[in-house]
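Data deposition worksheet. Section B asks for the primary sequence of the deposited chain exactly as it was used as input, without tags or linkers unless they were present during the calculation. Section C holds the resulting structure in token form. Section D is free text for depositor observations; keep each observation to a single sentence. Incomplete worksheets are returned to the depositor.
Section A, Depositor: J.P.
Section B:
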Amino acid sequence: QVQLVESGGGLVQAGGSLRLSCVASGRTFSRSAMGWFRQAPGKEREFVAGIIWSGGSTYYVDSVKGRFTISRDSAKNTGYLQMNSLKPEDPAVYYCAAGRAWSSSPSSYDYWGQGTQVTVSS
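Section C:
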């Protein structure tokens, strides 16, 4: 079993920054990859960024490339999503997820955090 606890969401002005954190605990083989997803009201859950836990390879949806950075600190069992230059289209509930392999599909991840709200004011 893997538990994920997110933090770091909040209200920020457009152009501002937030850093989300996701602390993982439990069986390490079950979190070979970590993904960040977001879901806005009335929309499907959308892939944002992913990272291979052991090698550190990263993946991004086009809309956040150059603005968001995913990283992990293996010693702390924590993943991060640094979000810069936030735009009015970025607000959503952001979720971290852990799975055995990287994928942009939510169905490929076995474990999910509770979500953290990100709000951007114009």
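Section D:
The two ends are 40 Å apart (CA to CA).
The chain has a mean pLDDT of 93.
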